[in-house]
Please model this.
Amino acid sequence: MLALYRKYRPKKLSDIFGQETNVEILKNAAKTGRIAHAYLFYGPRGTGKTSTARILSKIANCEKIKTDESFRQKGEPCNECHACLEIETGRALDIVEIDAASNRGIDEIRSLQEGIKLSPASLSFKVFIIDEVHMLTTPAFNALLKTLEEPPAHAIFILATTEIEKVPATITSRTQKFVFKKVSIDLLVSKLKSIAEKENITIEENALTLVARAAEGSVRDSESLLDQISSFLGNSEKITLEKTEDIIGKTGFHKIAELLSATLEKNAEKSLSFISGLKEKGQDIVQFNKDLINSLGKLLALKANEKMEMIFKKEMTDSELEEIKNLAKKFELENMLKLVKLLISAHREMRYSPFPSVPLEVALIEFINS
Model:
């Protein structure tokens, strides 16, 4: 049985989720036949960089695009011709995928240079997809630069990276650059809901929101987490927020808001009982504190500037935004600043402490007693 992220991997540009600008540009390039010789896709993990590279490989080699002008205006591969099917199944000899994390030396790039000189075996273009390109060594980058400067007419390079700042400017300047942004929580939830319906997975909306938040804008991570939860509980059992929290070790936003409210109200019993409950469940206290700091940061920003609400709409659900707005009205800015400083200090100590919950508990007690 295929993993969900592989089963629902995009097969055409319109399937790429949350990257509308990139999709539109690449579709227009496909319609006009203006496929560039080098691309650089950069952005966070799981946002569609490699999937887009494979789809672009199909567009460059699609037989129906070459012969059917009306179909070409769709700007999509047909996924039916010999070339598309060979690429989709991973059998195309002319599509070379290289993981630069494990093939990062000059010898691998020299081997690639030798392969480039040869004409395609069966397709129109040879496509070289270099993933995690920022991992290449300096000599390897220098060798790649020469190839990018004078590429053969039958070669297309697609470089992908999560850390564009590590890619030399001499490389980036010779490519068309496309940024892949994190996907918003609302979009991820709608995607997961669609998959859950197709897979007959019964899951609460709050649980889907927690999965989307845990994925941190990554479509692939969200699908993998949904797969993990459904595999553990089975399709016959309803997946609740509590069960999801236990399985993925993350706490829902409403509970984080509950602790923030109790702490800012200086309710020691409620605050410390909450942390004890997390420990009993075996949840990652360090990760929880990071989520707590992140939520408090949003609370501070909203308190300081109400216009931040428009930005947070992309990152939060309507109910979460309403809850954080109510908290912002309820508490003073000075108290929030004091608490976030204590939590950040606690986070530094937690990473090296054999008792990670203690610095957090001390920070909460210090704030409540101040």
Summary: DSSP finds 20 helices and five strands in the chain. The chain has three domains: 4-179, 185-248, 253-368. The two ends are 56 Å apart (CA to CA).
